[in-house]
Amino acid sequence: MRRLTVLGTCGAWPQAGRAASGFLLEYDWFRLVLDLGYATLPRLLTYCEGGDIDAVVITHEHPDHCADLSALGRERYFSDDRRARVPLYCTPGVIGRVQAMEPSEDLLDVFSVYRLPGTHQVGPFQLDAVLLPHHVPHAGVRVTAPGLTVAYSGDAGPDAALAPLGACASLFVIGATLQGPPPDEDPRHLMSATEAGTWATRAGAQRLLLTHFWPDSDRARSVTEAQSTFAGEVIAADEGLIVPL
What we know:
Layout: E1 2-8, E2 22-27, E3 30-36, H1 41-47, E4 55-58, H2 63-77, E5 86-90, H3 94-99, E6 111-115, E7 118-122, E8 125-131, E9 139-145, E10 148-152, H4 162-165, E11 171-175, H5 193-203, E12 207-211, H6 219-227, E13 233-236, E14 242-244
Parallel strand pairs: 3-4, 4-5, 5-6, 10-11, 11-12, 12-13
Antiparallel strand pairs: 1-2, 1-14, 2-3, 7-8, 8-9, 9-10
Helix pairs in contact: 5-6
């Protein structure tokens, strides 16, 4: 079984019926979580009973990407069957931000922490992470295994590092918060749908999955804008969407 399941798609906060950023990547029964923003844990538990996962990657410390890491930590902390610590790969600041939500329950009791950016072997995956521009330290991640490459930009701004990050990816997951012409500002901390298509093209990616939508935005418009700069398949992420890999 090789698939990506969308847990949440909203940037900033989740609109009614949705969740913030989060994905479950499964490869031959190994389960890797990419981000755990607001309201993603209940969705994750639908697919992984009792929080039975193998590793977690958190791209940065903004709560729309990490808030439910606290919820997962509590689920494992209070479990009747205390299991081995889960490998957690994250940027500086994530542990401090999440630990502050509940200081009395030590995250290090349930997670083994490895710092991003960097390269790590995570089960069957090679995980390569690079810094991308954002308001706080932020890692874009590239996950490779035999026959599979998935890249994820998080919600970073445009940067030359996106091309090698997503090079020839089976699926390039890109945060496309903005619509229309990109703002005239420097540095840039978010990307538009048109830019997402541009970087997927430069990377030579096979498919593009748009995510991190501003709540209540017109997602069909984002797809159309991305299609103007990317000739491959463009998919709008949706909660519960399963993308075969």
